[in-house]
Amino acid sequence: MATRAAKSSAKLGPTGRPERFYPVPPKLDRHGPARIISMCNQKGGVGKTTTTINLGAALARYGRRVLAVDFDPQGALSAGLGVAAHDVPTIYDLMLGKVKDPVEVIQPSTTEGLDVIPANIDLSAAEVHLVSEVAREQILAGVLRKVADRYDVILIDCQPSLGLLTVNALTASHGVLIPLACEYFALRGVALLIETVEKVRDRLNPSLELDGIIATMYDPRTLHAREVLERVVATFDEKVLDTVINRTVKLPDASVAAKPILDYAPENAASEAYLQLARELVLRGTVA
Ligand SMILES: Nc1ncnc2c1ncn2[C@@H]1O[C@H](COP(=O)(O)OP(=O)(O)O)[C@@H](O)[C@H]1O
Ligand SMILES: [Mg+2]
After folding, report:
1. Region (Disordered): which ranges (predicted)?
2. Ligand 1 pocket, 216 CB below 6 A?
3. Domain regions of the chain by residue span
């Protein structure tokens, strides 16, 4: 009874858990080696790219050195951060060994502390080229190993598929974050995704962890979104992060403006949501 009373007096967050306080993370006095995290969901349009950009910018705001890797031939991450992706060396050139040193490919974004490895449509040919390579699943891991010491976090923005590129991302990673849009069929496909993560862990990367599930595009005014989120929490429990990203047109607007939301609309609730996500991940030990 006492717990029930305590529960009802505490303000509950969208996940139904009591709201918690996430302190501003202490400054790091040294940097690296990076923890590498794949932003992964084979469903398109769930917020992978938006979360990579804005979580990356939020972690950079807290003094973390962040490298965002565009690993989708659509190049939305590169576009959303305003970095050149055409007529410049890209992740494709690194994957194929045409460029050996990632430093030649890395570009600074307009956010201090946030760098980018861009991608463009060339990357769509990579799977075909890599199929016959020795250790074809480990190529991205080899590329990122060369620069891991320079960063605290490397975020890989995966394409919406579970093909060889995504397996490369998972093989290169310490952890996986899964953005889930609070919409019909959000859970469809997640079992297959988690199975893929487990297969990569068993066969290629024994230390791979499922770091968490991030509910995105949440509209607290609709019963439907609340029901979806309730089901997600019932299914994945503690894996679901407390921080939920609400639906707001400011996020697509910021992408069009090629800026993180923190620069485009610092007063918008989505800016605070991504800052809180960064603080929660530091507190959970997911990132330094
Ligand atoms: N919280 C949000 N609210 C509203 N729109 C969003 C939100 N997050 C992402 N979007 C928009 O939804 C679309 C898909 O998001 P995106 O991050 O590109 O997904 P993915 O990378 O998984 O395909 C984009 O136009 C993006 O701007
Ligand atoms: Mg994307």
Report:
1. 1-26
2. yes
3. 30-283
The protein residue whose alpha carbon is closest to atom 23 in ligand 1 is: 45
Tell whether omega for the bond before 33 is within 30 degrees of 0, i.e. cis. yes
Q: Which helix (H) or strand (E) holds 252?
A: helix 250-256
Q: Is 217 in the pocket of ligand 1 (CB under 6 A)?
A: yes
| Helix orientation angle between 269-283 and 48-61, rounded to the nearest 10 degrees | 70
Residue 138 is given by DSSP the state: G
**Rounded (to 5) percent helix, strand, coil in the chain:** 45, 15, 40
| Mutation probe of ligand 1 site: the residue of 48, 49, 50, 272 with most atoms within 8 A of C-beta | 50
What is the rounded CA–CA span in Å between residue 273 and residue 277?
6
Cα–Cα separations (whole angstroms), residue 227 to 19, 26, 119, 181: 19, 36, 37, 12
245 lines ligand 1 (CB under 6 A): yes
In sequence order, the 6+-apart residues with CB closer than 8 A to the CB of 27 are 63
| Distance separating alpha carbons of residues 266 and 268, to the nearest angstrom | 6
Q: Which residues make Cβ contacts (< 8 Å) with residue 68, sequence separation at least 6?
A: 52, 53, 56, 77, 81, 109, 114, 115, 116, 117, 154, 155, 157
Q: Please tell me the distance from the alpha carbon of residue 94 to that of residue 178, in angstroms, as a whole number.
A: 25
**pLDDT tens profile 114-166:** 999 999 999 999 999 999 999 999 999 999 999 999 999 999 999 999 999 99
Give the CATH architecture of domain 30-283.
3-Layer(aba) Sandwich (3.40)
Dump pLDDT digits (tens) for 47-60: 999 999 999 999 99
